[in-house]
Design a protein that fits this description.
Elements (H helix, E strand, L loop, with lengths): L8 E6 L22 E7 L15 E4 L5 E5 L2 E7 L3 E5 L2
Antiparallel strand pairs: 1-2, 1-5, 2-3, 3-6, 4-5
Family: Belongs to the GroES chaperonin family.
Keywords: Chaperone, Cytoplasm
Protein name: Co-chaperonin GroES
């Protein structure tokens, strides 16, 4: 199945949380902090008022409580508004 966001929505693939500390201690899943970084998988066309400011493949940071979780073909994604994206992470 393929998702195509509408209006000013962006489809994100969240990055996995760290499972080990720098010293090698394994962090249990219940204690892992959810990351707020993701890769843009698809973007909507935008609206006259809200232009899309990211493109597919960008690595971004988003608001902690933003978006709607969706599962497609067994993979987890997040659909957020363009305005919920707070930064583009550059290498």
């Amino acid at each position: 199945m393929k998702l195509r966001p509408l209006a000013d929505r962006v489809l994100l693939k969240q990055e996995k949380a760290e499972t080990k500390t720098a010293s090698g201690i394994i962090i249990p899943e219940t204690a892992q902090e959810k990351t707020q970084t993701a890769t843009v998988e698809a973007v909507g066309p935008g609206t006259e008022k809200d232009k899309i400011t990211v493109k597919v493949g960008d690595r971004v940071m988003y608001d902690k409580y933003a978006g709607t979780q969706v599962k497609v073909d067994g993979e987890d994604f997040l659909i957020v508004k363009n305005s919920d994206i707070i930064a583009v992470v550059e290498a």
